[in-house]
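Continuing the batch. This is chain 6 of the set; chains 1 through 5 are on the previous pages. Same settings as before, nothing changed between runs. Recording input and output for traceability.
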Amino acid sequence: TILPYGTNTFSWNLDVPGITVLDLHHGSDDASLKTVIELLLSTICATRMYTAQSDFPPVVLVFDECQLFDWSRESYAYDIMVRGRKYGLAAWLSTQALSLINNPEILEQASLRICFQPTRSEIPQIVKNYYLSNTKEREYWTTTLANLARGQFLCKLNGQLLLSEIPHQ
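Output for chain 6:
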């Protein structure tokens, strides 16, 4: 049971170390799934952000297929990305469809961004989200992204773009 029912309560146990995995990719329909996700995120926010708690272990939320989440300013996912760090909440976003994120500015909240071999159609959005200042720099990284080897990645850390070594096969 994920949500409380009657006198039965549910606890995320966010005060003790551990791993909780919820695979919600098999929901009945997208609208219902989005509602359930917002309810789940609201309980996490209520537990961590809206109550006076201290000395809790950090919590890492992995948002796989993050383009499916609501990133509007009114959403709990947005609240976690923007304010969560000071409450020990971290968010990892994973997607193969960066251009479908409904609020791409949310990516600016990420202190580390890693991009593996993208599809050619996603490259312009990736370059745009790296906020590169001049044309030559944009062209260089566009070409570099298009030619990443399998397992190689581009990383933005502390405002600097870094390219990994090609892994040994």
